[in-house]
């Protein structure tokens, strides 16, 4: 039985890393991330996580090749909701478990800031909403296993990395 658990654990770990490694074959000409939380005037997310945009950008870039001279798509991510169980006012701990946004893929290398005329704008080749939530497991641990409760940083890093991975997995080759 112990061999079965070890095999299952090793297989799970291998599969967890296979997606990001396979994604490294993907190339983007640019990655832009903006946090627009204006729809939630009471949102205090950026007080606790001022580097949210940079962290998501870094997490995406870690999983793809970014070459600003490549004839590859460019993605723009707009984070528009960060919440704890639906509430956009985070507690004093700053923890959150929901991350929502829109991902748009463009067929060109012009950054959003460089586009000033309609005739130089890159073609929008796709857009989709991406919503993610993290939950803790309240189930009992199998015999011989220990459950470790995630810390605030664990949730943050897991959500940021998983959000970036979900984006990268949907990039068309």
Please characterize this protein's 3D structure.
- With 173 residues, this protein is an alpha/beta fold.
- It has one domain (2-136, 144-169): Rossmann fold, CATH 3.40.50.
- It contains 4 helices and 6 strands; from the N terminus they run αββααββββα.
- The protein has helices spanning 2-23, 45-48, 52-61, 152-169; strands at residues 27-28, 30-35, 65-66, 74-83, 98-106, 124-133.
- A 4-stranded mixed sheet has the order 2-4-5-6, with helices on one face. Strands 1-3 form a two-stranded parallel sheet.
- The protein is globular, with a radius of gyration of 19 Å.
In short:
The chain has 173 residues and is of the alpha/beta class. The protein has helices at residues 2-23, 45-48, 52-61, 152-169, and strands at residues 27-28, 30-35, 65-66, 74-83, 98-106, 124-133. The strands form 2 sheets. Strands 2-4-5-6 form a 4-stranded mixed β-sheet, with helices on one face. The protein has a two-stranded parallel sheet with strand order 1-3.
Output the keywords.
two-stranded parallel sheet; single chain; alpha/beta; 31% helix; 4-stranded mixed beta sheet
- Strand tally is 6
The helical percent reads: 25-40%
CATH topology: Rossmann fold
Q: How many structural units, i.e. domains?
A: 1
How many DSSP helices? 4
Report the mean per-residue pLDDT as an integer: 78
Q: How far apart lie the N and C ends?
A: 42 Å
Q: Output the radius of gyration.
A: 19 Å
Broad CATH class:
Alpha Beta
> Unreliable segments (pLDDT under 50, ≥5 consecutive)?
1-23, 115-119
Tell me what portion of residues adopts beta-strand conformation. 15-25%
Largest sheet, in brief, is: 4 strands, mixed
Shape type? globular
